[in-house]
Amino acid sequence: MKNLIADINKAFENRVRLGIMSILMVNDWVDFGELKEMLDLTDGNLSSHISALEKEKYIQIRKAFIGKRPNTSFQATTEGKQAFQEHLNALEALIKGM
């Protein structure tokens, strides 16, 4: 029998990382404040999950200034989008019991 959970990506097991990637899959760039507000997280909590996804090379970070204010934004990488889609496919297969 096929192992139904073998293709589930451990990087996306956490609900926060699942939320971050879900948002980044449908948006080009999202800034720190928007992610924080959408997911109702603290700065530290969001930062730790961002670091974990960046370590896996699933997201890229862009730091810039808007006027005189620093702005950090995030985008899913091609590798991240592929890994997340494979994760979703594995979840769907698990649900269907294939």
UniProtKB/TrEMBL annotation:
Keyword DNA-binding in annotation: yes
Lineage, highest ranks first: Bacteria, Pseudomonadati, Bacteroidota, Cytophagia, Cytophagales
UniProt keyword annotation of Transcription regulation present: no
GO BP terms, alphabetized: regulation of DNA-templated transcription
Residue stretches making up the Winged helix DNA-binding domain: 16-95
SUPFAM superfamilies: Winged helix' DNA-binding domain (SSF46785)
Protein's name according to its UniProt entry: Winged helix DNA-binding protein
Pfam family of the protein (one): HTH_34
GO molecular function ontology, one term from the record: DNA binding
InterPro entries: ArsR-like_HTH (IPR011991), WH-like_DNA-bd_sf (IPR036388), WH_DNA-bd_dom (IPR027395), WH_DNA-bd_sf (IPR036390)
Keyword vocabulary terms for this entry: DNA-binding
